[in-house]
Please model this.
Amino acid sequence: MRVAALAGGTGAAKLLRGLAASLDSSALSVVVNTGDDAEVWGLHVSPDLDSVMYALAGVLDAGRGWGRADEAFRCLSAMAVYGAPTWFGLGDRDLATHLVRTRALHEGRTLSAVTADLAHALGVASRILPMSDEAVRTTIRTPDGRLGFQEYFVRDKCQVEVVGVDYDGAERARPAPGVLEAIRDADLVVVCPSNPVTSVGPILAVPGVAEALGATRASVVGVSPIVGGAAVSGPAGALLRARGLPVSPLGVARAYAPWLRALLIAPEDAACAPELAALGVRAVVTDVMMPDREREAALGRAVLAAR
Amino acid sequence: MRVAALAGGTGAAKLLRGLAASLDSSALSVVVNTGDDAEVWGLHVSPDLDSVMYALAGVLDAGRGWGRADEAFRCLSAMAVYGAPTWFGLGDRDLATHLVRTRALHEGRTLSAVTADLAHALGVASRILPMSDEAVRTTIRTPDGRLGFQEYFVRDKCQVEVVGVDYDGAERARPAPGVLEAIRDADLVVVCPSNPVTSVGPILAVPGVAEALGATRASVVGVSPIVGGAAVSGPAGALLRARGLPVSPLGVARAYAPWLRALLIAPEDAACAPELAALGVRAVVTDVMMPDREREAALGRAVLAAR
Model:
């Protein structure tokens, strides 16, 4: 069975690890959000690509949920002495990824090509595909102006009012090589429990992706990142509200209509099932929390079974 | 007393620390070789600027003689997994210097401006001046072709035959702001015990520097990096030979004629004194070895006294 997944960062990384426990790794293709890529200290940082890559390589830090395990921050300390911004915490091992990527991009290689090289070097057999090789930048509109996603998410810790979200550059971006084919040729497309607005939203904003999801013969199954009226982690609640969507599985389903076929939701959201059905989305009530590897694997099996 | 020094890497770093022990730091200007600058992992690395800066900031690693104290190499290990070259050992703290420098240069700032910022942030009161803001690249001619200086020095550990040395770009380079003024306005110019061919040679190859040394009212005092027929460290012997110069204080003096006034030489080289005198160079026989801070300071005092 060939599986294609649409993925953001932390929640996606966990579910992908869970799916990989039940799948031949090489059967998995992951289309990853690059809308929150950022330049840090002159380096091209791709947080979601790296969380997915590190998770599938078994080197993701378990406590933080981002960056590498067995990490130190000596360079960061030295950068602070030089007055460089340190709110984006690049670790010493993690820096290698950004250095290799930045240099390759400066040399004219594509993000998808260098991503494939990095993943291969880390022993990842699954395909990790940036949604596009062109720059798409998720920008948060606030009453005081526009913020880059990492400024909003990491620097300001989501403590500002959101009035809208833009995907700068999306209309001119093309899907990276392999993205549309992965969706077209899959038996199952999984929408990971990522933020529908700022993680999956940028992927859907790349011309051709939503059309491929509508046209694929695969079953499209999502996992709700909203449980009991709030996001499991991150600012998905505020961002759904800013989009005029309810902070519930229903809001998630509306973001993914008309191509979502099934949505895994938590028992406390079971009452949403009829409204989901009215949108053409089958509700699968199950445990969607992933506090450890066992429950990641269990949710992975539930997703595969929901096909 | 205002002092200007011409400096390469390790030996210069030690003598400068010794001089700083007897001087008001702000009275010291150091003109530093940038001929062995290199691009490593896409970063602009200036080994001699950094050795001088770290030494004067008190953070130079004592054992290695280059890079920062209390250093680790986690990024380097991660780069090895990605197949990146690791023969040039950039440490995790040290990386901050190269990241800040590289970004500033990409933004169009000059090497001298970013060097001043870095030194200021590390609390260095002396002026550290790259010899030029333009690229000069010391290149080693071998029977099998040309090598960048770091390829010759670090990667190949000087184990190749040298048939010549070029300073690529020197003829078009201009002295960095402050270089000629530092030499002109000094009471004493110190030529550090650095390699005359690949450390001081590139500085002298920048148009205007040799003329400034000839015209300065300062006394110009050198310290021989050659003791008893061999370099104290590094490949100065082979490089003097490749230039057709004797591997002795006499070879050093010939490289610095006609503006060198005095040369500090080791007791075992005292017999060179008459030949040095014939070149117009006064020999000062003294202990020129610097195995510890006390002897660095003692040599610093001897240099100041030789004026």
The first helix of chain B runs from residue 10 to 20. Chain B has a mean pLDDT of 96.
